[in-house]
Amino acid sequence: MAEPITGSRKRAKAKIFLQSGTGIMKINGRKPLLYFGRQELVDMINIPLVTAGVAGTVDINARVIGGGIAGQAGAVSLGIAKALIKQNPDLRASLKSAGLLRRDPREKERMKYGHAKRRKRFQFSKR
Asked: How many CB atoms lie within 10 A of CB 108?
């Protein structure tokens, strides 16, 4: 098996093993719909394959750790896009124009002392 390509989103990290085959996809050893539980997340990880026009011609085995299921789906999507480029550099233009090669930089904001939540303050009392 080839070396893995990594993708990340929020706190989730994904290692993608991509090889030519018949379109079998496994996420942590399970089918994508069983793992994610929502069709919209499965559609998210299929976007790079459809954009590149290789859906059904590559086998994908992904190992995902950390974060929640939405972050993990984003990590798998980025990893698949990067793996497709490594396999065929000509796909870079189409994947880049679709915005699939950019890691989403949004992270959870840290908790601050003296605040009830990340930005919410405690109620002010004058007396």
From this structure: 10
> Vertex 91, ends 90 and 96: CA angle to 5°?
120
Q: Compute the average pLDDT of residues 61-82.
A: 96
Answer whether 58's CB lies under 8 Å from 20's CB: yes
Q: Which domains does the chain have, with CATH numbers?
A: 5-93 (3.30.230.10)
pTM reported for the whole predicted model: 0.89
pLDDT (tens digit per residue) in 92-123: 999 999 999 999 999 999 999 999 999 999 99
